[in-house]
# Entry
Amino acid sequence: MDIKLELIGVPVTDIDRAKAFYEKVGFHADHDVTVNEDVRFVQMTPPGSACSIAFGKGITEMKPGSLDNMQVVVSDIEAAHADLSGRGVEVTAIDDQPWGSFVYFADPDGNRWAVQQITPRGK
# Structure
């Protein structure tokens, strides 16, 4: 049996601010639907990903900013660092570890993301 991870809820305080931020990161806005006065559903997908994130009103009971170390994978960490920086996203310097190279950023609510190149630079 296949089990595919398709959607992760991201807790945010300001839906429009979060949507603008994730668009700046490069995520595609798949859906932005107000179902009723209690539910607004925004779904966004990173380029090339089969898994999306969702946020909005009535989506999750997690506290905004409580997600820690959501991780995406890229083939070139230097290109990812340059791309994110060029888009105005505040990212860390590249962190080389034995199991990969990383940069980190957080959304406006403090939900933290890791961007990983699986093979460490120089190997």
Q: What stands out?
A: The longest helix spans residues 15-25. The chain has a mean pLDDT of 96.
